[in-house]
Amino acid sequence: MRYPMLVLSLFAACVSALAPVSAAARPDTRTMTCAQAQDFVRQRGAVVMTTGRHTYRRFVTHWRYCDTWQRLFPEKAPTRDNPQCIVAYRCDEPLFGPGWD
């Protein structure tokens, strides 16, 4: 009789221990001003932030956060005071590689 209660207690302890981790959400650009979002990325170098109800983006401040074949492109996101705030940069492959003059 005590074995099922022990298993149930251990399960409850594991779930409660994981609850704070799952409750910690990504920072949301929509709750910040444009300047706050820019500072947030600048302080961390690279960060993934929520940008909409079902969307998120990765923002970087420097090319060292990208793969060698990627380049930096300005990345916009909605903020509390600006729907088209240039928060930082994104790493992306250029449309054309070197030699396409």
Give keywords.
single chain; 101 residues; alpha+beta; two-stranded antiparallel sheet; two-stranded antiparallel ribbon; 2 helices; globular
Structure description:
With 101 residues, the protein is an alpha+beta fold. The protein has a domain at 26-92. 33% of the residues lie in helices and 25% in strands. The protein has 2 helices and 4 strands; from the N terminus they run ααββββ. The chain has helices at residues 2-23, 34-44, and strands spanning 46-50, 56-60, 71-77, 85-92. The strands form 2 sheets. The protein has a two-stranded antiparallel sheet. It has a two-stranded antiparallel ribbon with strand order 3-4. The radius of gyration is 20 Å and the shape is globular. Residues 19-23 have low confidence and may be disordered.
For the sheet with most strands, the description reads: 2 strands, antiparallel
Number of helices: 2
How far is the N terminus from the C terminus? 77 Å
Query: Helices and strands, in N-to-C order?
Result: HHEEEE
**Spatial arrangement of strands, main beta sheet:** 1-2
Report the count of strand segments: 4
CA radius of gyration is 20 Å
So what's the oligomer here? Answer: single chain
* Strand residue percentage: 15-25%
Structural class: alpha+beta
- Give the averaged pLDDT, no decimals: 84
The 3D shape can be described as globular
> Which regions are unreliable across 5 or more consecutive residues at pLDDT < 50?
19-23
- Residue share in helices? 25-40%
Gist?
The chain has 101 residues and is of the alpha+beta class. 33% of the residues lie in helices and 25% in strands.
